[in-house]
Amino acid sequence: MDFGRLPDLHQVNFSLPPDHPATARLLTRARATQPNPPALYVGCPIWTNKEWLGSYFPLGIKEPDYLHYYAQQFNSLELNTTHYRIPDAPTVRRWREAVGPGFKFCPKLPRAISHDKQLFDADALALSFARAIEGLDDRLGWAFLQLPPHFGPEHLLRLERFLVDWPAHVPLAVELRHPRWFADHALADTVFSLLEALNKTLVISDVAGRRDVLAMRLTTPTAFIRFNGHGLHSTDYQRADAWAERLAAWYAQGLHTAYVFIHQRDVRHAPVWTQHFLARMRELTGLRVAPPFIIPQAVQGSLF
Questions:
Q1: Which residues have CB under 8 Å from 274's CB, separation 6+?
Q2: Looking at the domain assignment, is residue 83 inside a domain?
Q3: DSSP readout, 227-245?
Q4: Which of 9, 110, 139, 143 has the fewest beta carbons under 10 Å from its own?
């Protein structure tokens, strides 16, 4: 995720803003139906990480086996491959069968819908996509719509119509990127209220160069967080701690589920960050999500 990435972090204030006032109200209502325990899903944007061979993946495995071993390290996946094409039924079935119970896929809507058509006259494509990912069955988490940076508030009615027509039984999160969605607080509150009314989750992106997108507004009892790290710079760990503390507070107030997706330019850094984050989450909440681990590699014994 290059959105909001900066070459120099020295002037960035990585502190998380206070919660939007409506977040506490939403969580108070959600507390009555909070599952015990609540859920935490953590993952990466891709699973074909050849750099993990010999560490988080066994040496010698073939690419068709990567997803199976990825699912032993993380319990969720930001499914970016669907951004480029709608998968066919056999592909979806292979994905579902490659992972175990409790794993969740979060498929990104095709760019043909979000970027090319910009939600205009995209109903047929959206329905085809929704039907395709329904094949993930109980492995389906939240689909998410990533709007392009040039899709601004002038298209609010188009966005509203798309969300109203989206199949209600397929959970959907929405990522806003244009600065004007956040610059006008009255407009932002209108959009957030719309998402809440339609049971759509606002994506919260934590990136260095766009601190405005950290609205800290939950619109459903599910938090959907996209974290852009910087090569295990010290601020990565500070931000991991801050997110663990905020999520712990949200769980205490009634949060049902959190998805946290880690974007690092070097994929070898994502498991290390995740180990730190999950250890802190366990300390604060007691939630036991297995962290990524180095797989012991078989050693050829000597005959002499």
A1: 42, 74, 262, 291, 292
A2: yes
A3: EE--TT-HHHHHHHHHHHH
A4: 9
CA angle in degrees (0–180, nearest 5) for 68-72-78 = 75
Is 243 part of a structural domain of the chain? yes
CATH code, domain carrying 93: 3.20.20.410
In a domain, 17, yes or no: no
The verdict on residue 146 lying in a domain is yes
Query: What is the rounded average pLDDT of the residues 173-178?
Result: 97
284 phi, psi to nearest 5 deg: -85, -30
Q: Quick check: pTM over 0.90?
A: yes
Q: Is the dihedral of CA 152, 155, 159, 162 positive or negative?
A: negative
Residue in the structure block whose two tokens are 């994905």: 95
CA–CA distance, 19 with 144 (Å, rounded to integer): 22
Domain range enclosing 68: 37-285
2 pLDDT above the threshold of 80: no
